[in-house]
């Protein structure tokens, strides 16, 4: 898809910068420029398309939709809505309160909270650009499965008492759902592209910069030996290292891309990325405002195990995706 860009950037590096592509510096510069342009192009397209769809699912409408689904259907719907519903650390607490206040089961709520940060249109766009549609679609499916199963397990544990008492006592009321016409939806999508890119560009640049360094300078044999698909502990270590970090999928995907090109197992790299987005320490600190430590520990454990299993799955089937 982007062969033309790859060749154009190679010409730029060799003819304008006068740096050979066979050198580490030339390879790193090519990676940085190529990935930056490629990601921005697909990011704009995907954010616009999904934002248009998202305009049909404002938070209040999402809450009302989930009120109508019970059992596993609720978990599945919550995870699917998590893909197209805006989510960030600052929104986790009010969304959680809104879902609990609406009487949505705690397991369904957690299906949404697990899937939403892992799977989003921006992450899908970068995965599509970096690895192709097979891995991008498989990643989305994996994120939904982790969300559904994680929510079901949390529901089975009957941990409603692990929610802070004041949450059940709050009455935030029913918000008004404002319907948009087509012109307003297009403007919403355009504004969302600008807003999201302005908010996350620094993560992109940092992530691509780290990825470029790894691509040009990291010793491939060493990474492949200790973090390759043949190391049975690599996935678990990747998840453990990802939890304390604060970033998002946009900043970690370019790093994952560089690691995979150096021989790191695809499942290991993606498990690291998923743990950063779904289990980051700042996110847990915010959730502590509404849920007790026992439920946070269960959430981290269940989601972490799910991500590890997904990591091993990707390591096993990565060769089928022509990466």
TrEMBL record:
Q: How does it sit in the membrane?
A: Multi-pass membrane protein
- Which Pfam families does the protein's record reference? ArsP_1
- TM ranges: 31-53, 136-154, 200-220, 232-251, 263-283, 295-314
Q: GO cellular-component terms in the record?
A: plasma membrane
Q: What is its main location?
A: membrane
Could you tell me which InterPro entries the record lists for this protein? DUF318, UPF0718_permease
Q: Which UniProt keywords apply?
A: Cell membrane, Membrane, Transmembrane, Transmembrane helix
The subcellular location is: Cell membrane
Q: Specify the superkingdom.
A: Bacteria
Q: What family classification does the UniProt entry report for this protein?
A: Belongs to the UPF0718 family.
Q: Which PANTHER family match?
A: PERMEASE RV2963-RELATED (PTHR42775:SF1)
Name of protein: Transporter
User: Which species?
Assistant: Peptoclostridium litorale DSM 5388
